[in-house]
Amino acid sequence: MKRYSAAVLGVGGVGKTTYIYRLLGLSLRPRTTLRPGLYRLYLNDREIDLVDVPGQAALEVARNFARTWTFYVDLMIYMYDLTDQATLYAIAEIHSALLDRGIQPYKNVVLVGNKRDLAEELGIFIEGDEIATAIGAQKIYYISALKDHISALYKPVEEVLP
Amino acid sequence: MIPRGDILRGVRDTPLVALLLEFEELKPSPKLRPLLELLAELGVLAKRGDAYVKADARPPTGEKSALSEAIGVVLHQLVVPHLASGATATRLTPELKQSLYIYTSIFQTLRIVAAQELLRYGGLTLVAGWFPCGFSSELMSISGRDVVIVEEREDLLTLEIDRLSLLPLAAAPVEEGLAPASFYSFEVMPLGEVSQLVDKYGKFDTAIVCGRGVDIDAVRRAAEEVYYIHIGDKALSTLNSLVLKSLGLQPPTDEAPKAPRRGNLDGFEIYIW
Predict the structure, then answer these.
(1) Which residue of A has its CA nearest to B139?
(2) pTM, 2 dp
(3) pLDDT of residue B174
């Protein structure tokens, strides 16, 4: 079995924990994440440790990721809210905080726009192409962590990890 | 909440079980009886008088899950040798350790739901017995708890220590209600002695015991409130007892504890003091 680690980063309220819960088969409205959490996902022949980072401390955590030389994940999932441009711009900020030390503590990176269902309902859809290019994301996914079928939610993880 | 299909497949595909199922009828010997009881609980066998006959429980088909594979390894490498010789495993192979770790994923949903639905924010929490339920980082991230994890076997605890090293550190700004950094500590000691930890950490706000046999009074002396989680699902409970005994750990008794409050989480009974 191949072992991987993945971290989900983004500001508060974009749906990081909801997304992780759904990956684990849980349809549970999460509490606010207060501290970094660790969840394990078994996906085909992969064992993936998912690091859930509290949104209110995302910048701080990113800076500390950068300072911790040993920290390294196979996949960084940057998540933003498709109805809120500020959450997309925050990704750029988090990303630059992460690279402060001039090292890249991840092997692969994807950008995930969440709350697609809400974006469609409101008619506000903030596309992430520019930021994706800026952060070097291999792919962009637009998802509804609440409503999408689980197979769609697996894609950001399974299409990028070898 | 309990992945019964994965458990059934993992058990049924074990070489010894596959061989046993070649027989039309099985008469239990003392050594074999616990395994046959497990198969009966899973619906693979049915009890007919003194004997067991094949029943029709069919595991899910398709690709075998990581959990099924792990349960197969745990039965084959740990439980069957224990049943055959009565000895407990002193050294665990890397494959077995990995499989025992995966085994704890049976309880991941329970851990999340319990941390979210039962526990209030904050406080120092004692996990009295890390294996099999694996309560750990969920308590920190979901309930904002500081956590001390106690286990009797160091080799089991190491599995979790390695994993928690993945968690990022972060500064703790004064204005934050709870620091994004976590506090966790590990202790290797008999569960019956957890009250001694009070001298080191102070009295715990909460203690969690899950799927383990403990002296509840000793745990109650260490914590203001105690959550004792009993595996209500008979098949999982039987499997769990076999795994614990094979590791030389104390399985829980079948008897329900007398607690002032109790609740249920799909297949698990929770007793609260």
Answers:
(1) A37
(2) 0.90
(3) 59
